[in-house]
């Protein structure tokens, strides 16, 4: 894998306003450093221990995103530095992020993870639960947490029409949330969708942030 070349090629082919999260989970710090040296600054990790250990070893201006299932008892470890949590999917998790954000005097940016795939295994709110969560308004009482948008994963399939349909669902949910709950709030602006196998479709359907692992770093 030529990490430098992959990053340059992707940066040229993906629209400038779409952010690239380099998903470095299970890869060593040296590979992240290589991507960093090629200009990449946003990295995504899915395990707390691994994220904390890499954050300690690597340059301080990296934006670390957390993209995996997050246990409440581990929020404390990433709260001091995490730039974006993509996997907010319950009120209990929100309250813990609020608590830890307050403890380190930060406002922690988060995305609402929404279940858009056919597979049962994928985490997140259903679209209806997502709207109900916002409607409940509890998030308005959490000044140390900022909801910046939504995240979703499409079904792992070769059926590109299926994938497109799921990304469209997430985009229309984002639009509905924006209109109903964040009309005057420009910071509700992110749609994190698209991985190595489906990111071109995600971008066509309105993604603002793609999460690319194997395409940059090779097989895990
Ligand atoms: C691992 C992972 C990715 C990256 O997957 P690739 O197919 O390697 O690009 C993206 N998003 C999430 C949530 C992941 O867990």
In words, what does this structure look like?
The protein is α/β, with parallel strands linked by helices. The protein has helices at 3-13, 29-37, 48-57, 75-78, 91-103, 127-136, 160-181, 199-204, 214-217; strands at residues 19-23, 42-45, 63-66, 84-88, 108-115, 145-153, 190-192, 209-212. It has one domain (3-217): Alanine racemase (TIM Barrel). The chain has nine helices and eight strands. It has an eight-stranded parallel sheet. The longest helix has 22 residues, at 160-181.
CATH top level is: Alpha Beta
Radius of gyration: 17 Å
> What name does CATH use for the topology?
TIM Barrel
Discrete helix count: 9
Can you give the mean pLDDT? 97
**Can you list the strand order of the major beta sheet?**
7-6-5-4-3-2-1-8
Order of helices and strands: HEHEHEHEHEHEHEHEH
Counted beta strands: 8
- What is the percent of helical residues? 40-55%
Distance between the termini: 12 Å
Total tally of structural domains: 1
Strand content: 15-25%
Poorly predicted runs are none
Shape: globular
Bound molecules: pyridoxal-5'-phosphate
CATH architecture: Alpha-Beta Barrel
Structural class: alpha/beta
Biggest β-sheet strands, sense, barrel: 8 strands, parallel
Determine the CATH superfamily. Alanine racemase
